[in-house]
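Posting this for the archive.
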Amino acid sequence: MHATKEMIKAGARAVESLIGRSKSLASNQVAEAAINAALAAMWQPIETAPRDGTEFQARIPGHGQDNVIAWDDNFECWAFTRDQEPPDCWTDGYCWESNEDLQSSVKPTHWMPLPPTPETK
């Protein structure tokens, strides 16, 4: 996840109110850097991820960081929980030690909680 334009604008407004400036490129840059730093700090090692079926966002090397997975107790491995394309080395959306072609699955390295669902008005 990266800072969106809306996040940057909101952050810039907060910065501007604190430093008393009108909108400026400097406040946008400060806001973007602060938001990106906060988002980066949210990523945690996969070893600390919940193993109770809770969905979360995962970084999978070579497959990005927008993957939604959870621990599957039945198969004792990570599994995609939404309609997303898993890495080729996963079988049927599951991260086995090795897949049906005896190829090792690329394991997730980091996780973070899913963002809250936007409220509808």
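Helices lie at 5-19, 25-42. The radius of gyration is 18 Å.
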